[in-house]
Amino acid sequence: MSTLGTTGPGEGAAVLCGIGAVLPHTAVSNADLTARLNTTDEWIRSRTGIAQRYVAGADLSTADLAVHAAARSLDRSSVPVQALVLASTTPDRCCPATAPAVAARLGLTGIPAFDLAAGCAGFLYALAVAAGLIADATAQAVLVIGADRLAALPDPDDRTTVPLFGDGAGAVVLRRGTAAEGGALGRVLLGSDGTHADLIQAPHPGALRMQGAEVFRHAVDRMSTVSRQAAAAAGWSLDDVDHLVPHQANARITGFTARRLGIPDDRQLQNVEHVGNTGAASIPLLLAQAAADGRIKPGHRLLLTAFGAGLTWGATTLTWPDRP
Ligand code: UT7
Whose CA is nearest to atom 39 of ligand 1? Predict the structure, then answer.
């Protein structure tokens, strides 16, 4: 039974009202990698656009990253949250989930808190779940975190995957509001295709295997298609979009995706050069950095899209709020 009967037009929308992000202290440059892998700075930059990534030491867990990013987003939103969703491919343990421990460390013991695994599309999946909890009035506000330590997944001697991945976390607070206000999230469109599960798999940390060229092709196809659908669902033409905010897998994937959408480079946000592929943290980290340095301004229309292991993908629209 729907609980939406008491709400008026546009009410029950999820509205972004706080954001925070964090990176580990240690930056690993391409030069650092060439010292121990048979690779070059030129190869890594030309194939991926990545110049450095941040890597967490053994003393910094996924939960630690999640707590730091979440605390910043909670400070900025100053609204009480009634649920926590943590998107991650690298939870601290198989069992229990990482989210309840994160909630407890944030002083949120008692609220529902759970992990969500959807690869590098995890943050968009988590936004969809949070928007659903808000729409049916289960929660007035939800904390959504994307946190990953993807640098731990490749075989440390595998030059084809080590350069791609970094660690980090980003978090947003979504509150109940209206579709017309700044911060409003559009419909979140999601998909998966498990027939290609073998294209990116990591049976355990240190054992990631990836068929890079195939992943590349699927990523561009899926992100461009679902981005068109998300823009259409919001009633936007692609010309209305101020910034494409793609999951930072690598600069060639995001460049091909933007070109297929007819979105010029200066309307595509990027930070992959400095942070690499940070998985579920990628989009909130990019949003936080771009808002802080002024690339994103209040009222900007953003088109978010992601793709990852699963295969999974998703897209949504977001109008940037005044002071998140
Ligand atoms: O969320 C999704 C996450 N996944 C991704 O973002 C990955 C998507 N895939 C890609 O971006 C690209 O496939 C890669 C950047 C991973 C690889 O680029 P590619 O153009 O597909 O290269 P390749 O795998 O076909 O390899 C070409 C050559 C090979 O040498 P041979 O067999 O032609 O002699 C590789 O061994 O490049 C070699 N190679 C390297 N050479 C120097 C692979 N990695 C490196 C390296 N340095 N780091």
Answer: 160
